[in-house]
Amino acid sequence: MKAQLFITCLAEQFFPGVLEKMVALLEKLGVEPVFPTEQTCCGQPLYNSGFQEQARQLAIKWLDTFSQSDLPVVSPSGSCVDMVRHHYPALFPPGTSEHSRAVDLAGRTYEFSEFLVHQLGQIDVGAVFPHRVTYHASCHLLRGLGVRQEPLQLLQAVHGLELLPLDGTETCCGFGGVFSVVYPEVSRAMLQDKVNHILESGAEAVVASDAGCLMNIAGGLHRVGSPVRAMHLIEVLASGINLD
Amino acid sequence: MQKSQLQSSQKKISQPIEFGAYSEHVPGQIPSALKYATGRFMEQRAASLDELPDWEALRQAGSAIRLHTLENLDFYLEKLEQQVIAAGGQVHWAKDAADACEIVLELARQHAVKRAVKVKSMATEEIGLNHALQEAGIEVVETDLGEYIIQLMGTGPSHIVAPAVHLKKEQIAEVFSQEFGIEAPTDPVQLTAIARQALREKFLAADLGISGANFLVAETGTLVIVTNEGNGRMCTTLPDVHVAVAGIDKVVPDWESLSVLLKLLPRSGAGQKITVYTSFITGPRRAKDEHGPSEFHLVLLDNGRSRILQDPGGRETLKCIRCGSCLNICPVYRNVGGYAYGWFISGPIGAIFTPQILGVQQASELPFASSLCGACDEVCPVKVPITKILLHLRRRVVEGDGYELAVVAPPLRAAAALGRQALGTAWLYRLGGRLLPWLQIPWLRAGWLSKLPPPLNRWTKVRPLPAFQARFRKWWKRRQQVSTGDQP
Amino acid sequence: MSEKSRSAVLDAVRGALQRQPGDSLAERLPVLSSRQAASQAQELQLLIDEIQKLSGHAQMISSSQVAAALAGLVRTYQVKQAVLWDTPLLQQLGLAARLTDLGVRVVPAHSDKQMLSECDLGITEADFALPETGTLGLLSNAERPRLVSLLPRLHLAIMRPAALRADLHQVFAEARTHAYLILISGPSRTSDIEMTPTLGVHGPRDVHVWVLETDL
Questions:
Q1: Nearest chain B residue to C152, by CA
Q2: Which chain B residue has its CA at the smallest distance from A141's CA?
Q3: What mean pLDDT do residues C209-213 have?
Q4: Which residue has the higher pLDDT, B288 or C81?
Q5: For residue range B7-61, what is the model confidence (pLDDT) as tens digits?
Q6: Mean of the pLDDT values across residues A182-200?
């Protein structure tokens, strides 16, 4: 089986390790990744800021890039997949080629955990991570895509991992894309709540499936001097496995 | 800030609402008080939903009922009017806030009203009715305990269902002490007893009762009011004249649809299966020897709702039944409180209602006062697609649409277009990825960028940025070369 | 002015919806199934339980127990003045006379509101009862004045089992033709001060419901 990689702009800039592990993990699970090099950004930041016309242009570019092949698309970010799945079709008038391509790609673009569980039927990938871990449910993954159980199922199957509950696991961390810089003090308050809950959970690591949340939470933990690591789900799933 | 908040709700707001500026200096007690109160509301809500066999089906039915009503609103408004008149009531139509105030003032004049008592009504806050009546020398007393308290304090509501939820009992005791010239205790039970007695006198002396409406049933011309305290009954039974002011979006087709909405409203708002009192009032009293007002007046308020109705992207805003559960779940609201939203209606529903009524020129900050987390969409009992409407309004602010011109200046829009072109041009984007790790060096410390110059400091003042380290494409290329056998 | 406003508003609404005057409804509304009642005994027990949960008091009572129960109430709540609905059932139970015997001043239901406000006890019937939520439904007319269940600090509602209804739907089906209905679920309450529950804000602080064991 082959799949196209949609690496996302934030993960590309800030979490290259996650992308490398995603590639290795997919290969181990029998998926041959393909990387369309023309990809840039799906346009979500512009769309969420109200620049729908600009977002539409980026969407066209994204569609041009990924519609070159019929292969499914896999991404490490729930919010980017939500953009493609729910907002792309609405950006184009029905009947246009952009619209039909958007609908087509919306139907075959997956976030990583839903791809593993539903497309590959994989829950136990053989990962080993003997630590206390808690899970932050990213908003767009949870409410946008309806991906609620899959990351938990994957984490629970990791050998040695102790999954601890997180108070307010479904509460927004305060990233919200441009929101974090438009209203930084509100973002700060929300981040503080999230960091406090993480510290109260007793976990050594907090796992999320979205680069935006991770940037925000990792930065928040660092600023209070906490040793708790913010990790991407993929990093945990790639732990303790021989990926070569 | 609080006094100006009250003033602005009494007159048409002329200054832009400054959510951002307010949010930078939120008084410390507000988030803690709100988190406690809204947390309790949500616990109660969850418990009350657990007992219901199918909450989702109920929500879907509620949403369908509201949408159907809005799509046939003219029909139902005329039906409502016809029925209220047949029941002996009178119906007045108000295009806007000034119209509505004038209608009530005229009625008050006709009846030589000196003292009015009011049930909590968001519509009357929207039009600034208290101020208009007080200017005409009429005493207006808010009788909902929370509203009574904030009226004494000279401030506005911080939550749409529990207006005084941000206050401490010591503050309330202080204001009672001043008002009654006593040493008021801080015990809530005793404070309530003081209010009961004081307001009882007002109820008995009032010549006008003013209410809003939770629902208006078109089928029979019936006004529905839900309260827990009993002040709704007092205001609509004791004075001889009763005036109800309600938005045209409060119409419900019939009693059957009403029963669905009455199952949704109290559970969503405060986790109650039903409020203590639900009044169903159809016209004035029928005979002289009955209790109740001899005159019933219904004022139907447009004030911009017909414009929202016209916009398919915003229409569902009017489905709202004012339960407050979107406020209770919203992490933004819980951290800033109601005053930040600049008008009588706050939280997620405020962020979409206010810009559509007052226009995005005055309320351009509100559609952005959200991280788009979507929690509000999930809890709304009538499925108002709040997040979708926020995005719709953000576009209106930034690009303008058929309803309003853009607020964002052309230079910023041009900058965004340039930015998009750079972002969308693959070689430029890749070049940026290769340059940023070098450009960041002056600020890079141990893998973090903790202090960046403006405008990036808007991020770093709250938390550091991880280092820019785009290396995937190089890694991928090398990997491809290895596997395609650049090897002997 | 109002006529101009009326057309302005209705025209704006029709314009927004692109509808013409006289256009019919676009579609039918969904109908949800309503609750089915269990046995009468179960419904009554549910009603009593739910009322107690709301800090009200509810009990089954036979007509021979009424006198003693009334005396108990008068004593416990120190009732000095009372007002009653003027209905056949309450007359049959001879409540006014019993109260007078107990030294309670009974004022006519059509006394002025000041007098009614000074009553400690208001006695009504309940025209409807909803067990699921512990709710009483009271209609209003000349013999059922509204203030009797509102002004006094103690409200006593006497009902027949026949008042039971399974669901709001059934209550509405009957009440929709009446000019007034009040649904009462427990005593008056608020949590407006620091979320502290407090009873008896404006309406009665105490609600007692007596369900007559046999229909009279």
A1: B200
A2: B373
A3: 95
A4: C81
A5: 444 444 578 999 999 999 998 889 999 999 999 999 999 998 888 888 999 999 9
A6: 97
Instruction: Please state, in angstroms and as integers, the Cα–Cα distance from residue C23 to each residue in A101, B223, C7, C14, following that order.
Output: 40, 25, 16, 10
**Token couple for C39:** 């046995």
Q: Where are the alpha helices (DSSP H) in B128-220?
A: 129-135, 145-153, 169-180, 188-205
State the Cα–Cα distance between residues B192 and C201, nearest whole angstrom: 6
Scan residues 323-352 of B and list those with Cβ closer than 8 Å to A: 331-332, 335-336
Phi first, then psi, for residue B196 (nearest 5°) are -55, -45
Question: ipTM of the predicted structure?
Answer: 0.96
Question: Taking CB atoms and an 8 Å cutoff, what residues of chain B touch C190?
Answer: 145-146, 192, 228-229
DSSP code string of B376-441: HHHH-TT---HHHHHHHHHHHHHH--SSS--SS-HHHHHHHHHHHHHHHSHHHHHHHHHHHHHHTG
- Both tokens of B422, joined, read 């750079």
Fold type of domain A132-237: Rossmann fold (3.40.50)
Give the side-chain half-sphere CA count within 13 A for B121: 33
What pLDDT was estimated at residue B6?
40
Domains and CATH numbers, chain B: 2-306 (3.40.50.10420), 427-483 (no CATH)
Give CA–CA dist A146/A68, Å, rounded. 28
Q: Which helix (H) or strand (E) holds B456?
A: none
Superfamily of domain C39-189+197-212: NagB/RpiA/CoA transferase-like (3.40.50.10420)
Q: What is the mean pLDDT of residues A68-77?
A: 97
d(C-alpha B230, C-alpha B228), whole Å: 6
Partner-chain contact C140 B87, CB within 8 Å: no
CA distance C51 to B331: 35
Question: Does an H or E element contain A197, and which?
Answer: helix A184-201
The boundaries of every CATH 3.40.50 domain in chain A are 132-237
The residue assigned the tokens 């509501």 is B157
Instruction: Say yes or no: A37 contacts chain B, CB-CB below 8 A.
Output: yes
Q: What are the start-end ranges of the H helices in chain C?
A: 2-17, 40-53, 66-77, 88-92, 95-101, 113-117, 168-175
| Side-chain-facing half-sphere of B307: CA atoms under 13 Å | 14
B173 and chain C in contact, CB less than 8 A: no
| Residue-by-residue DSSP string for C163-185 | GB-SSHHHHHHHHTTSSEEEEE-
Could you tell me the two tokens for C165? 């209804």
Cβ of A53 within 8 Å of Cβ of B469? The answer is no
Average pLDDT value over all residues in chain B: 92
- Residue C125 sits at φ, ψ, to 5 deg, of -95, 180
- Give the pLDDT confidence of B459-483 residue by residue, as tens digits: 999 999 999 999 999 999 999 888 7
pTM: 0.95
Nearest to B330 by CA among B271, B365, B373: B373
